[in-house]
Specification:
This protein has about 240 residues and is mainly β. The protein is about 10% helix and about 35% strand. The strands form six sheets. A five-stranded antiparallel β-sheet has the order 13-12-16-17-18, with no helix packed on it.
């Protein structure tokens, strides 16, 4: 646990941030480090760890040997690899990876930053373009849902692009910050359909529509896209990825 390392090193009163320097910085940058920070309270969360082994063996080089940071429930880019230094400070550093990158530029010119948590999202994995429907009949819609905020509480499925919703069945184990499988029976009559899934986690957060997401994150963000996704089913059973507001 990262908390154990911080406790052993000793944290001075007033410390608010911990930065992690990883040796995988961009080639175009003058510094070789990829730098991110955690609030001290989050850094002391017992789930956050410095990993040196994986599956009982030494951490492979490509996975961050000798040590990498693992922050469950947050974006993958926060899981810094090849860590060489930790620093503590009393204010945010505003590094390259926290200002010009991994931020969300809004319409008024301001940028949202430090938006690391992974919010509830779900996807339908069947049917899909690679595995289309094969004519009218009974199908089992299958998919996965997850949330960095905790357990998945409920998943709804729509057959008409979000006009009507029905509860899907969750398959255990349903664990915090982990993929959760869901299924729902579908009697398809061969008419066009728009399949969607919508996840809710135990905090009450509901997966947003694209319009709802843009209202919060703007239209320039390229990360944190947890909006509802739509599969268009055509009468011949073919499946296409389409965008609905």
């Amino acid at each position: 646990p990262l908390k154990a390392v911080l406790d052993m090193a000793g944290v001075q009163q007033g410390a608010k941030q911990v930065t992690f320097n990883g040796m995988d910085g961009p080639v175009s940058d003058k510094t070789p480090d990829f730098i991110k920070a955690l609030d001290i309270d989050h850094a002391r969360d017992g789930e956050v760890m410095l990993a040196y082994q994986m599956n009982g063996e030494q951490l492979p080089l490509l996975n961050g040997f000798p040590i990498r940071l693992v922050v469950p429930g947050w974006q993958g880019n926060v899981n810094i690899k090849w860590i060489r230094r930790l620093q503590l400070g009393d204010a945010p550093w505003f590094t390259r990876e926290e200002t010009s990158k991994y931020t969300e530029l809004m319409a008024d010119g301001k940028a949202r930053g430090f938006t690391w948590p992974i919010y509830a999202k779900s996807v339908i994995t069947y049917p899909c373009p690679e595995m289309p429907a094969k004519g009218p009949g009974v199908y089992e819609i299958r998919g996965l849902a997850w949330s960095g905020l905790g357990k998945i509480k409920q998943v709804d499925v729509s057959l008409d692009g979000g006009v009507n919703w029905a509860h899907a069945r969750l398959h255990g184990p349903v664990l915090p910050k982990a993929l959760t499988k869901f299924t729902m029976e579908w009697r398809w009559d061969g008419r066009p359909a728009l399949l969607q899934s919508r996840a809710m986690d135990e905090t009450g957060f509901v997966q947003p529509t694209l319009t709802e997401l843009r209202a919060v994150r703007g239209t320039n963000a390229i990360y944190n896209n947890n909006s509802i996704q739509t599969w268009q089913i055509k009468p011949d059973g073919s499946v296409f990825n389409v965008q609905l507001a």
